[in-house]
Every structure is written in structure tokens, then in C-alpha cells.
Amino acid sequence: MAWRDLREFVDHLERRGRLRRVRVPVSRDLEITEITDRVSKGPPERNVALLFERVEGFEIPVLINTFGAPDRMAWALGVERLDELGERVAKLLDVRLPGTFAERLARLGTLVDVVRAAPRRVTSAPCQEVVETTRPSVAELPILTCWPGDAGRFITLPCVFTRDPVTGARNVGMYRLQVFDERTLGLHWQTHKGGAEHHRRAEARPAPAGPMPVAVVLGGDPAMIYAASAPLPPAVDEVVFAGWLRGEGVELVRCRTIDLEVPAHAEIVLEGWVDPRERRLEGPFGDHTGYYSIPREYPVFHLTAVTRRARPIYPTTIVGRPPQEDYWLGKATERLFLPIIRMVLPEVVDINMPAEGVFHNLVIVSIRKRYPGHARQVMYALWGLGLLALAKTIVVVSEHVNVHDLREVAWRATGNIDPRRDLVILEGPLDDLDHAALRHRYGGKLGVDATEKGPLDDLGQPWPQEIVMSEEIRALVTRRWKDYGL
After folding, report:
1. Tens digit of each residue's pLDDT (9 = 90 or more) over 69-104
2. Is residue 362 in a domain?
3. Which of 95, 120, 396, 430 has the fewest CB atoms within 10 Å, i.e. the most exposed one?
């Protein structure tokens, strides 16, 4: 299903009983964060999307925790289960030529939805019902102060549109923005991301090269919001990817003051520019690691226009000690990209990037081990695969292990290893936000071979048999369970 815009998705959540309207006055400073944190970490029946209708001092309501559970994240992308995303990708990647005419037609049907994914240009749009260009300001937006130690208020759920100054290729990323004043914001695009690459290319141009146009989009179709967060290869356009997810192209409209196009059905758009050579101290900010990010120099966004709906919704999120809403955005990526990983590494059975590992700290992968050093080969291959290069710890288990059962993984990752033989330690790039790294963005990595060992591993002693009850007795006890009175 293709959602036309964010409010259509909100209506769906409300019909399904997965949204609550908060009608009492609340403050944008810390109070909304504390409420949302409790809801997102509460029992499943209480973990719902929240629409704060009366934010003190503002006319615009705040929507938060929209994607903060597996059902809501799946619905946002038009499926009932997140694993369906991987199934769609697996179909697309199946390059075997079918033998019959009917099979060829079926294959063609799979490709057609990619053709339909191209964006469509429109000349008028809901996101431009109100246009402010004379004295644009973010002062009317209920931008949150999330945590007590934050350096200020932060926009946390944006789709940031930029264009490569050399090739003209578009990039859409999700980078937080710190409000310095009503027309100036700090733009935190991390060095490994597409926006930062466009910035580097703009900075490398001979002076005077002129400013770099940037559009900050708030709201719109949920698939577009997700696509901004996804670690796509540089050649993949996030807008086309969102169109593929939703089954039809995203409608785009030209900005009023800069040479960029933005989703027509967004709630709010901030148009502006970045001087490639200007930096300003950004942060600290309470981040998804559970710690405050270290203040560093980042580019500065200068506002030239605010366009919006007549009655917009302000979408936002909080990050902090997991699990939070961002975990489910990451889980969608994990399930979506599993078939791509399997295409490169067919021995991979499943993968899990648990909330406790905050995406980049822990990757658990199960494999069909077939030869000596196989687990290490998979580690090295994953560290060479896109943004998995930033993974700090990779744990490899055997194919029969449930990678989503952390108790089982911990049992095998401690019991199945000899530290001298099974630990791999090397150095390489790390996430921008890794506070424990040797230095900023660079440090050590750990690989753990937690597979069972045997003849392939030249083991110096027999590997014991795992304790498992016979199926006959398990079935007997299951049949008689009520008889035991337990």
C-alpha cells in the first residue's frame, strides 16, 4: 500500500488502535521525551504512536514514536511483517531465467514496480500551502529539547535533500539539526554519509564556488522518511527507492528559493544553504548510544524559506538508551538488506543487529560453515560491505542457531570459543558516534567465531554432543502437561 502522506498513515494507526492523542498541555522541553521514553519501553499494548495536540506555546501538534514497534514499522512500508520486505528484495534479485512464458511474465511483473518507482513532478503541492520567504523562521515549530544535557533544541526526524555539485545526483539522508537561532542551524551529517560526501565535493571546488543548496523535509510519505534513514549504496536514489517500496513514484515539487525538489506531500520544508567552508560547534546531544555525543565542528544551515501545509503536523523522534523508535527503522533495514547480503555471501542464513548493540556495535550472523576459516571469511566480507564496515563486533554462529535469541547467542559466544583461536582483532573505520574508539571514527574491531568446532578446525580434542531431549519425550510431556498440575 502506498500512503499518500503522513496524516493518512496516522489515520490508519488510529483505526488499528496504535495511536493515542494526548490532549492535555505538555512542554516540548524534556516532558515529551520522558513520556515517549516510557511508552516506547513499556509493554507492547502501551507502546503506541503519540500525537500531542496541545504543545505549550505552539499551534502545531507533535507526532512521535510513529515507527516505534514492528507492526507500525511494517505498515509504514506497506507490509504486515518486516520479513516481507526481504522477500520482495529476494524476488527482485532472483536472476535465474524462468523457463516458461508464464514464469517470464511473472518475472516481468516484478520488474515493472521498479519502473513505476520513478518520481513524478508536480507544480503545486500541499507542502507549499503557506510560503514564508521574507523573514523565515523556525520559531513557530515545536522543536524538542530532548535531554537535560543537550546543547539546545534539535530537529531529529528530517529528510535532508542535497545534490552532488559535480554529478548532480540527489541524496536524501536523516541528519539531526541543532537550532542555533531562528534562521541558523547546525547540520550533523556524519562523514560516512552521502550528504557529507556532497559537502566535501562542494568544499573542494575552487572559490568562489557559491553556497550548497539544502532542503530539510519534515513529514511526507512514511516510505520516504524510512528511505532517508536507510544506508543505501551511493548509486541508489533514495526517492526512487521510496517509490519502489510504496509501489508508485513520489511526487516532487520544486523549492521556492533553491534549486532542489522535495516531496509534495510533506508537512513542512525548510529551504536553505550551506557555505561549504563554514563550521560551528554542534552538540552535545543525547544520542542512540545512550550517551551524549561529543561536541564537534559541523556545517551551518542558513534558512531562506519555510513552506508548509496550512495546518501541519510536526514529526519528530527521540533517541537515547535503546530500545527507542530508531531501533525499528534499523530493523527494517536489516530485514530488507538480508537478501542482498545473501547474494554476496550465500552461506549466510540470518542476521541480527540487536537494540543492545545500537546498530554498529554488534552484528550476529549465522552461517553454513563448510571449510576452515569460513567464519573469519564472513567477518572480513561483512566488514567490507558498505556501512557494515562500521560494525565494531561481529559474532558468527552456526546455521541452526537463532540469532534473535540473545540468551542462546550469549551461551554459544562464551562456551564455543577459545580466546586465542576464535577471536579476531583488527582496526578500521568506526561510527562517528563511537565514544570508545581509539580516536574519532577509527578504532579496534572484534570478530568472534562462536560456531561449533570439529575436524575443519583441527581441534585438539573431541567436540561434545549438545544436550537435547528426545522428540518422543517432548511430545509425551506436551500431551500430559495439564495432568501434572503445573
Report:
1. 999 999 999 999 999 988 888 776 664 445 554 554
2. yes
3. 95
Closest C-alpha to 262, from 293, 223, 219: 219
What are residue 22's DSSP bridge partners? 52
For residues 216 and 297, state if they share a domain. yes
Same domain, residue pair 199 and 51: yes
Q: What angle do CA 286, 289, 294 make, to 5 degrees?
A: 55
- 201 lies in the same domain as 156: yes
Closest by Cα among 422, 366, 371 to 398: 366
H/E segment holding residue 379? helix 374-383
138, 160, 259, 319, 430 from 293: Cα distances, Å: 24, 20, 33, 11, 14
Each residue of 319-328: pLDDT tens digit?
998 888 999 9
DSSP string over 171-195:
EEE---EEEEETTEEEE---TTSHH
Q: Is residue 130 part of a domain?
A: yes
Q: Are residues 302 and 403 in the same domain?
A: no
**Beta carbons within 8 Å of 484's beta carbon, 6+ residues apart:** none
Residues with catalytic roles: 287
Q: Does residue 427 contact residue 438 with C-beta atoms inside 8 Å? A: yes
Tell whether 211 and 294 lie within a shared domain: yes
Burial class of residue 363 in the structure, from the number of CB atoms within 10 Å of its CB (0-12 exposed, 13-18 middle, 19+ buried): buried
